[in-house]
Specification:
453 residues; alpha/beta; Rossmann fold; Helicase, Ruva Protein, domain 3; 4 domains; five-stranded parallel β-sheet; 18 strands; elongated; binds adenosine-5'-triphosphate; binds magnesium ion
Length: 453
């Protein structure tokens, strides 16, 4: 569809000349001779851009500009001024005009101006609609759960989001929802019109992480051919999410601490202090206090980030949430896969409630996604649930075991038993080894083998 441009000028000849050019360039053109008409047209015709003369018979161009900008914030307006009336131009810029062009026109310049303005406009619109969508997607009621713990967490999130708290700590095992919570905090805060920037500290070696975070000046190191802004600057006004902070090396931790205390930093190789205004959300799936005791995490940094902690418990400690979450994902995937699964079958329900969900909500979501792809019945059966879910559960001392038709991997059985024994023994390896009838060393070996730390 052709972009629609509104020409506002009281001189007919000018409108005529402009119309001819703009039509040649492939635009649809509408015209107005007065400010009043222009405002009318804006409402009725929804133009994509306005060419607005500064001098009009009824209102001044800047008044019209102001009125337009009040209602259509992102709509680009290019002012037309006569030669030498620079004050008007300055005033228009302040009121949000995209640019101005001086009569008599340089058409090449005008053409570029319009093209750029329209591009900038559609980008802005796109970002605005994206943000709107994100705000909806990351509302508080997207966090599912009926357990007391989740309710408490939601209250906490609401308070923190509305507060000015500049640092938030999210602790919880992998898959418990730290990412989700972090986004909800951002999109429910006053910062939601500014960027949300996330970085995973374990994904990059420390030197790279530092330059990603703080940026660098030209020539700071051999490859620094030009200046680069860091994520900290890009997130200015918004939220910076530092995921897996525990994997940050001690030396960088000191720099981060300094930054957290002042919200001021220097780009690598730079001398100037740069101040930013942002909220930092830090996440970890390890126990930071233990890491501090082991000398792997700085106590001072820990104290600094532990001001507003939110701990998300693993799913096995809030079993009431399992079924509501499962039902939530079923309806989500019903939409995605155009299916109409009505819920969990009785067997699936039992299975879900008895399983320990070491991968937490993520594992639950994945299990449902997979099963829903294959399920032919109205209710989700156990048939297509991932094997490791299929009936290994320890009840008191007895081991109930049903051999799934689809077969089973012995390794997986062993892994689940090791997990279960550790759970029953509350992490005490000597006890867990006893439960399994093996030596402590053998258990240690298995924990390592299955990566269960
Ligand atoms: N309470 C919840 N309600 C709805 N969806 C949830 C909930 N908790 C987690 N999820 C979903 O489960 C998946 C995993 O969550 P998320 O990625 O936030 O976990 P995480 O704690 O960041 O894990 P990791 O430590 O591995 O990064 C996501 O798809 C997330 O949307
Ligand atoms: Mg995460």
């Amino acid at each position: 569809m052709n972009k629609k441009i509104l020409i506002v000028d009281d001189e007919k000849v000018i409108r005529w000349t402009l119309r001819k050019k703009l039509t040649d360039w492939g635009y649809e053109v509408i015209e107005a001779g007065t400010g009043g008409e222009a405002l009318d047209m804006c409402q009725k015709e929804n133009p994509d851009l306005i060419l607005l003369d500064v001098k009009l018979p009824d209102y001044s161009g800047t008044t019209v500009l102001k009125k337009v900008k009040n209602t259509y914030q992102n709509l680009p307006v290019i002012m037309i001024t006569a030669h030498g009336v620079i004050e008007d131009a300055v005033k228009s810029f302040k009121l949000g005009a995209y640019d101005f062009i001086i009569k008599p026109f340089n058409f090449e310049e005008l053409r570029n101006l319009i093209k750029n303005a329209l591009e900038a406009f559609s980008l802005k619109e796109e970002i605005a609609s994206y943000r709107k969508k994100e705000k909806r997607q990351y509302s508080l009621d997207q966090i599912i759960g009926v357990s007391k713990k989740i309710q408490e967490i939601k209250n906490l999130i609401k308070k923190i989001a509305e507060s000015e708290a500049s640092i938030v700590l999210l602790e919880g095992e992998s898959g418990t929802g730290k990412d989700l919570v972090s986004k909800v905090i951002h999109y429910q805060s006053r910062r939601n019109n500014y960027p949300y920037v996330a970085i995973n500290c374990s994904a990059l070696p420390d030197t790279l992480l530092e330059s990603e975070l703080f940026g660098y000046e030209k020539g700071a190191f051999t490859d620094a051919k030009s200046q680069k802004k860091g994520l900290v600057e890009l997130a200015d006004g918004g939220t910076l999410f530092l995921d897996e902070i525990s994997s940050m090396k001690i030396s960088l931790q000191a720099k981060i601490l300094r930054f957290l205390e002042t919200l001021t930093f220097k780009r690598l190789g730079g001398v100037r202090d740069i101040k930013v205004d942002l909220r930092i959300i830090v996440a970890t799936n390890q126990n930071l206090e233990n890491l501090c005791k082991e000398g792997k995490f700085r106590w001072d940094l820990y104290y600094r980030i532990n001001v507003c902690p939110i701990y998300i418990p693993p799913l096995r400690e809030r079993k009431e949430d399992i079924i509501p979450l499962a039902e939530h994902f079923i309806s989500e995937f019903n939409v995605k896969f155009r299916k109409n699964i009505k819920g969990l079958s009785k067997e699936a329900r039992n299975l879900f409630l008895n399983y320990s969900w070491p991968g937490n909500v993520r594992e639950l979501k994945n299990a449902i996604e997979r099963a829903m792809i294959f399920e032919e019945d109205d209710y989700l059966s156990t048939k297509y649930l991932p094997i490791k879910l299929n009936h290994i559960h320890v009840k008191k001392e007895a081991l109930l075991f049903e051999f799934p038709e689809t077969g089973i991997s012995l390794e997986e059985v062993e892994k689940q038993l090791v997990i279960k024994s550790l759970e029953l023994a509350k992490g005490n390896k000597t006890k867990a080894a006893k439960l399994l009838g093996i030596s402590r060393d053998a258990l240690r070996y298995k924990i390592k083998k299955f990566n269960l730390n």
